[in-house]
Predict the structure of ATP synthase gamma chain.
Amino acid sequence: MANLKEIRSRISSVSSTMQITGAMKMVSAAKLKKAQDAILAMKPYAYKLKQLLEQLSSALGNDSVYNERPEEVKNILIVPITSNRGLCGAFNANIVKKAMELESGVYRNMNVKFYTVGKKGNDILKKTDKIYRHETHIFDSLTFTAASELASELMELYTSKQFDKIVLVYNSFKNAATQIITEETFLPIQSVAEAEESAMIDYIYEPSKEEIVKELIPRSLKIQIFKALRDSVASEHGARMTAMHKATDNANELKNQLKLTYNKARQAAITGEILEIVGGAEALS
């Protein structure tokens, strides 16, 4: 009977876990809808603005402080964007893995530092002793103002020549079950590819190209950061919803297996008691 008691206790424990994971799945699904609507509405505008700024920056050349510099690229700042909470599958691990692959691969002969955004990424990467700075509170209340402050800080690090290149690594939202690991150059602004130069539109600028770019480039970069953060938030909720859905299914499967084991053990115990009674009766006769 002690064995039956242990199985009953495990069934109760698994049932409680299943209720928790089910509740977390529903909460993430509710948050995902809002985050998904926000990022899907923002992406076309952010993409078009970035495309426009790349064309304008290419036309300006070295006149923009945000364009590529003639000096050799030596100092790299990688900005991995993770979450502050776990229980979202491989969401955070994939970003950290990608950041470390860049550090040991493409930029292995350069001075690489990490600017971690999100607690989980910082907890892992701080062991490398290459953390330049970290930000863990931006997701407490994600607003354009908070994203602008982060973008301004990154722009200052580039224009002051502390870093020659700044790279964002984050999860781009595709759907609830799919997040695309994205490596995106934040600064310098990438020049328009030769294949696209023929398709460049000759805009008429008022008051002037230089003045427009001076105002638009910082705003565009801030929107780029805001989009990456929103992408990461939507991806996090999707990853957590998927992880909790799988956890709930696994818990339900384990619960059914435990019930079957319990019923078999109970049946064996009953059969054993019957055999003892029958054996005792035969001995008395």
